[in-house]
Amino acid sequence: MANNKSAKKRIKINKRNNTQNNSYKSLIKTYKKKFLIAAESYSKDLTENNKTISKEYLTLSISQIDKAVKKKIIHKNTAARKKSNLYKKFSMFQTL
């Protein structure tokens, strides 16, 4: 347990930051899952509506990843890998 005032304050700040960081990471995962579901439905039913929905979720997930890098929640190379995988999936479903 913390013995002085500044250590107690750091514990509070770390807990707050950890909660915020986890929410950002969770949003990234959520948008990625929604994109994958939309892309899968587009591969089954090649309509323009499904294509726009999957594009929308792709841009949302890329945007969320970039925001997490900007706030130093995830490393820039991790973000690049995640974005690359998303673009690969999108291009894979585009060629169908």
Automatic annotation (TrEMBL):
Organism of this sequence: Fucus vesiculosus (Bladder wrack)
Keyword Hydrolase part of the UniProt annotation: no
GO cellular component labels: chloroplast; cytosol; small ribosomal subunit
Protein function: Binds directly to 16S ribosomal RNA.
UniProt xrefs under Pfam families: Ribosomal_S20p
Principal localisation: plastid
Biological processes, Gene Ontology terms: translation
Keywords, sorted A to Z: Chloroplast, Plastid, Ribonucleoprotein, Ribosomal protein, RNA-binding, rRNA-binding
Domain of life: Eukaryota
Name this polypeptide is given: Small ribosomal subunit protein bS20c
Segment forming the signal sequence: none
Family designation: Belongs to the bacterial ribosomal protein bS20 family.
